[in-house]
Amino acid sequence: MALRTAPIVAGSLIGGYLVARETKQRPLGGAVLALGGIVSGRQWMKTSGPAATAALSAVYLGGFGASHPLAKKIGAWPAVFSVAALSAVASWFVSDRKG
Question: Does residue 65 sit within a domain?
Fold first, then answer.
């Protein structure tokens, strides 16, 4: 059975924010984000190839970047949950549902 990346990307975006917030150490949150991206990227490459991996990586990292200005409009947690959901749905549609 193929590794499902939708929960990994959602969990690492949420978990990265939580770790950074609770520890007051942004690099620790970044480490969670990076680990989720590496694990997911390797699986995307296996199941969907380099173009899909690049697109999903852009969604994942773009979501992280977009969560910051979005948080100013709707709040931190709603922003994190929104980009995590978007990244998870994209991951499922592009990669996970194939396996």
Answer: yes
